[in-house]
Amino acid sequence: MKRMITLQVNGDTCEVAVEPWHTLLDVLRDQLRLTGTKKSCGIGTCGVCTVIMDGLAILSCLKLAIESQGHDITTIEGLGSADELDPVQQSFIEHGAIQCGFCTPGVIMSARALLDKNPQPSDEDVREALSGTFCRCTGHIKTIEAVKHAAEKQAGAGGTSDGQ
């Protein structure tokens, strides 16, 4: 039996009807039409469905939608805008870290969560933060460079993406 829930996604309040087994990923993609968050393995091993919930990178394929009420959710669509990209997004473009692009939203969300917690991460910090995302195109060298560059740009701008 469907249940009405309220989600906070990218700063907006969204009411949706969900079955008890619907994942956050399914609701984001199928009901809210936020298709930047990708669906791949469905069992939490690839990381391409990563979103930020309450400041933490989480796998949306493993989170039930009904458990997501009362939490602040950010998807790739909630970062930056067409006119002004998030520093991580811009850095990925500048460093050629996009490759085929399928895993890119998940990697960017993991990187954004890292930089919000640790504005000056070491290479090892970046590798650890990105280790949950499986990419078939790259060994993460360009992505590590892009995240480090985004951290430098962010430090020069005076803080994290939310101005802190």
Helix-strand sequence: EEHEEEHHHH
Overall pLDDT: 90
Q: Tell me roughly what share of residues is in helical segments.
A: 25-40%
Number of helices: 5
Spatial order of the strands in the main sheet?
Answer: 2-1-5-3-4
* Separation of the first and last Cα atoms: 43 Å
- As residue ranges, the low-confidence spans are 160-164
Number of strands: 5
Output the structural class. alpha+beta
- Rg value: 15 Å
Taken from the alpha-carbon principal axes, the silhouette is globular
The largest β sheet comes out as: 5 strands, mixed
Beta-strand share of residues? 15-25%
Structure write-up:
This protein has 164 residues and is an alpha+beta fold. 34% of the residues lie in helices and 15% in strands. The protein has helices at 24-31, 87-94, 104-117, 123-130, 141-157; strands at residues 3-9, 12-18, 50-53, 56-59, 72-74. It has a five-stranded mixed sheet, with helices on both faces. A hairpin with a 2-residue loop joins strand 3 (50-53) and strand 4. Helix 2 packs across helix 5. The longest helix is centred in the last third of the chain and has 17 residues, at 141-157. It is globular and about 50 Å long. The N and C termini lie far apart (43 Å). The model is unreliable at 160-164 (pLDDT under 50).
